[in-house]
Amino acid sequence: MEKIKFFKVNTYVQICVYILSILCVSVGGGFIKNNLLPLYNNILMVIGFIILMAYQLKMVFWKHYVEINSTGLLIKVNSKKGIRFLNRQIQSSNLNKNTLTITLINGQDWEFDMSNIDRNDVQELHYIIMQKTIQELEEK
Question: Which helix (H) or strand (E) element contains residue 68?
Answer without folding.
Answer: strand 65-68
